[in-house]
Write a structure and sequence with these properties.
The protein is mainly α. The chain contains 38 helices and 11 strands.
Length: 804
Amino acid sequence: MNNHKVSVGELDADDLTWREQEILILLGERLTNREIANQLHLAESTVKDYVGKILSKLFVKNRRQAVERAKTLGLLQLDRGSMIKTPSNLPAESTQFVGRMDQLIEIEQCLAITRLLTLVGPGGTGKTRLALKAAEAASRNFKDGCFLVSLAQIRSVDDIVQTIAEVLKFPIATHEDPQNQLIRYLRKRHILLVLDNFEHLLEGSDIVNVILQAAPGVKILVTSRERLNLHSETILSVGGMLYPEPGSKQDPLSYDAVALFMQRARQVLRHFNPSPSQFQHIVSICQFVQGMPLAIELAAAWLYLLKVEEIAGELEKGFDILSASPRDTPRRHRSIRAVFEHSWSLLLPAEQEILTRLSVFRGGFTRQAALQVAGASLQALAGLVNKSFLSHNPASGRLEIHELLRQYAQEQLDQSASCCKKAHEAHAAYFATFMEQGWERLRDHRQMAALADIEADIENIRAAWKFCVEHLNTQQMWQFIYGLWFVYWVRWWNHAGVALFAQAATVLRGSQDEDAMALWALTMAFQGYFMGWLDLSKQGYELAKESASILESLDFPQALIFTYDSLSVNAYFQNRYIEEFVAIEKMVKISMKIGDRWLLAFSLFAASMNALLQEDYQEANRLAHRNLKLYEEIGDRIGSSMPLIVLGHVALARNDHENACGFYLRCLQIAQQTGFHYGIQTASKYLGKVTIALGRFSEANKYLVQSLTITQDIGFIRDILNLLVDFAHLKMAQGDLETAAELLALIIENPASQESRMFEGKIRDSARDLLNSIEAELPPEIFSTATGRGKDLALEPVITALVS
């Protein structure tokens, strides 16, 4: 367990766990043990034990003295909500969590002793809500964060790794197996993953096993209608909430199911105050649905139309209607089906139609999307929220439909092939327009808001793009394509980018219509672009070359600019510098002719890099300053980080290390604020380089470690070796020539050292030059021993040692 560590007066708060600090603050608020237990979802006896430990650690005899001593030491000034800040994407609660205290305690105890806990139960039992509440309580124990990975919206086991990576904001960026890249990222982190709705992906449960075996600091909490059947799995069955059994004399409100009904009922009727006889009907409802939270919420929502006794009667009738169901169908399945059927029958025909159309969404939707796709007015959406068919997240403003209800609504939609097609067409049309507008927003001051909006709807966008590809709707594909490329580039989703555009290129291949032919060429260019960054530049170059030959005969200038960009990137990696320079010149010429300021800025960056590679530092400096000014005028924050790299490189080439440091530092700050991985990795690397030259070795080590950590996680071997050369520089500057010699010998032995190093030729040549200078300084025997050790070193342990 990770304790919150602060020094508070004479007391070392290492002696107080985060839970004890939390309870101490509540003691200061004069809460009783029972009130604390209810607020923290703990047993009252557990709180009593914690209070005893607090008294002992504070050397006091009672609660009053504990509070007084805590005030003296400043412990009560701590913000309970911020005692331990860990990364998290857990959603805020839209309604108060009710009951389940015993299960929350059981989950907490299980997570303390097991690394894979699966909450198993039928749909509608509240597994997700329970898992989120438990994860929130446990999150402080995981220093690298607690993350919800919603799997309901994905349909293939192949997408599990990419979905987890995107939630963690980790880019799958090389051609290496994506699973290996994710494992490398996780293996040195202390994280709780909540994998929600796993039941339709059980064939992919092996990834869970692989993560647990390779990443000892990771624990996984799964929700599923079926167990994963893994040896390491601990199963916790989740059924309905506790409800009164027939003949029970206990107060009905002491049961969780009844308490949930009352909470939801008072959302419908604010002053709902049932009589004793009505309480009996509430009990009957809870008994009928066997305490299933989703069914209870739906039943309580009927109070806008029916009395409690009418709801109970209608449910019994509904169950009678369904009593002819197969005998082997569990009663709980038939009872919740009865709730769904009756809830559906109470909707107006227009509401039913809206809900069926809404079933095409994946991972929620906005009010605007619901209006465009399903014709849902604000009033209609509010009605569906009030009737518990939809939930509203006030923090994000998005609406969601419970997966079980979405599946039920989809069943209704699938009964009409024409209605189903129209709904998917409306969904695709909306997101095509959304992405077309997003492309404009991504290129100006609205960039970060646009990125957030797109990422929130990324599963809807992918589903809509796939629909357009499968139905060869080239008009809508054009609306998608540039925004998709931009998002995948910024987030470094290189591996997924290749797959996304390869699928489209395959469908479009051989098109004769000019519009489709140009689109085919552009999908190949984008596929090739991401291949270049995946160290597959040979294939990427061929695709970009073919794309250019097609587009040069057509009138699609914007597409041609991106094709030349793809060609220049792959040509650089293939050491085809003349072709690279020619492609960049064509980019600039076309962008100036079009008159689009963003495309000109995009092309100017390539031109400034071109000048830099030709060692025309004056021209590189001029173009980069012009590039920076243009990006800043446009408002493209991410774009403005790119010319700062060039300006840093120019200053570095001129040995103006102070100015180089300033440019790289500005780039790093922007990249960190925007989540631009390439900028973070590159700026950190060169900050390490210039701070070595400035004699600031501690800073240099910090920056190099930061860059190496990202590079190691992603798996760029070429860039790892590149960074090791810089580490060798640092060791030499610090006088540790033997360690430097070991690193350089290791680099030279690696086959990837034959690749190019920016502005300095091949990595191996740079390493040999440095090694030759060390050989002149060290005695022959010591030099030979050091290089011999280096040749025998394995890359992975060396990286781990440098990072740690």
